[in-house]
Amino acid sequence: MKVIAFPRKEQGSGASRRLRNAGQTPGIIYGGTNAPVSIALDHNALYHALKKETFHSSILDLEIEGKVEKVLLRDFQVHAYKQLVLHVDFQRVDAKQKLHTKVPLHFVNAEISPAVKLSGAVISHVMNDLDVSCLPADLPEFVEVDLSKLEAGNSIHLSDIQLPKGVTAVLHGQDDPTIATAAVPAGQVSAESAEDAASEEKK
Q1: Pick the CATH number of 99-192 from 2.170.120.20, 3.40.1780.10, 3.40.50.2020, 3.20.20.370
Q2: CATH architecture of the domain covering 2-92
Q3: 193: Cβ–Cβ under 8 A, 6 or more apart, which residues?
Q4: What is the pLDDT of residues 149-192, one digit of tens each?
Q5: Are the CB atoms for 88 and 62 separated by under 8 Å?
Q6: Fewer CB within 10 Å, N or C, the chain?
Q7: How far apart are CA 174 and CA 27, in angstroms?
């Protein structure tokens, strides 16, 4: 995904305010062996890009004055109540160095799982993204979570997921964190119990 940016010479809150009034968003590129570079981006293009999942989890081609750098979106600030992006941070990516970032989880086949088809269970996503470590060339846009074999009352754990080649999960104190769970709604359980009890009385 390509991003067009412009060099930003002026610094300070006043300069940033003038940029925003002109329809641009101030930002910065940092990391690697080069010094941080202050940039400006077209606000509307950035605002729409931020709505795309790939913009948050993919390596971006950031072009400044004809020169392209590989970067990752690291942070952005938005106005408390206006549809306004106040600032954006990008980090340079070194092809030879592993990076640590989050990738989204895509849940598939919930509708054909025994939990949903046979038990009417509700599947809850405990995690929506996963911390991973990998070389830039191995960074996936997302990690797929197959729910087709999930049964009611059971869970999907990290160990149940096949991570892409070259990608390892970064764990935060948990050996095998829960990714998703399947539970039958309490009201449904009560109704089924009542039906069972009624049928027992008739016998």
Answers
A1: 2.170.120.20
A2: Beta Barrel (2.40)
A3: none
A4: 999 999 999 999 999 999 999 987 778 899 999 998 876 654 44
A5: no
A6: C
A7: 35
